[in-house]
Amino acid sequence: MKIALSVIALLLLVILGPAAWQYAHFDPNQAPPEQNLPWQIEHLPGGETRVFGITPGRTTLGEVTARLGQDGMSLAIVAEPNESGNVEMYYETVTMGFVAGKLIITADLPTATIDAMRERAPKTEYMQSTTRKATLAPADRGAALAAPVRALAFIPSAQLDEAVVQQRFGPPAERLRINDHQEHLLYPAQGLDLMLDSQGRELLQYVAPARFEEVRAPILKLAQSQAPTTPSTGKASGQ
Fold first, then answer.
1. How much is the average pLDDT of 113-135?
2. pTM score, two decimals?
């Protein structure tokens, strides 16, 4: 299933705006000791990572709701045409530390299970263009909440720029440019794909480091298809 592309499609739902990201003006030496900030990615002994108190591959969606609550949360199957899609938990507004934004959590479920859930869905509607949203049947919500998190996507409410990214996250291991306003900064050791967008909202996508290639592969394919005559990849160091 396409982790990155299904999440990126949801960016079209976010209203564009020019505001600077909230923490861009914070001095790290004077900022309060906030917790669960987007750049606070904890490395665990088994090679896993934890962000926002959530460990991809281990934490369940039910545990996420226990942590974040259910206010402003929706749970549904989101799918492109001819795809099974993903079970996604969506928070319209969350605040991580002092950074507000939207949060999308993808469940790690087999395709056959998602197909069966979609067949039982009492309602299906279009989100934008051809993307479909299927409401889960009450009997399927329990199974969805028991599933582990496969990926998290955080969309900040206000915009960030590369200077802020370098300060907070450090230099990326790889950069993939999609077009003249979108570029993905990849941090495989942290399991983070950070998309900068000069014309819209940024996207921070977190997965377990062991599954990072599942995120990188579709982004690389998209970058190559959009700019076939120019180099689409580049290592960050010594560029």
1. 91
2. 0.81
